[in-house]
Write the structure tokens for this entry.
Amino acid sequence: MSFGKNIYPPWIIYDVVFTYAVMHKKIRNRNIKKESFQMFTEMLDTLKLSVIMTLSRVQVRLPEEIEAAQRAQQEAAAREMARHQYSTNEKLASKQQNLVIKIGRNEPCPCGSGKKYKHCHGSRAKV
């Protein structure tokens, strides 16, 4: 038995190899299509499940309940606004009290002119 000589002509061997490669590619593509379709159906099932779970949690309210909830929200907002306004007024009052600073007559004027306070703005403050 000799392995050197082939009993088939080269074009037949080429055809067989080519046919095998084509069939293998088709089978591989078919498997890829099956896997992708399976993944797609799993995604759809997951989506359906999440939609159903969301819809099962929905609670239908009567118009009276909605109005009562809106009134409660408005009252809470009004209380919060009043509390915020009160705290803002307190802060402003404390800031105004802190702003009153005693300036000595011989100290430099806070306007930045370089003159003494008594010759710059201090002379207007006496009146």
Summary: The chain has a mean pLDDT of 80. The chain is about 70% helix and 0% strand. The helical segments are 10-56, 63-99, 122-125. The longest helix spans residues 10-56.
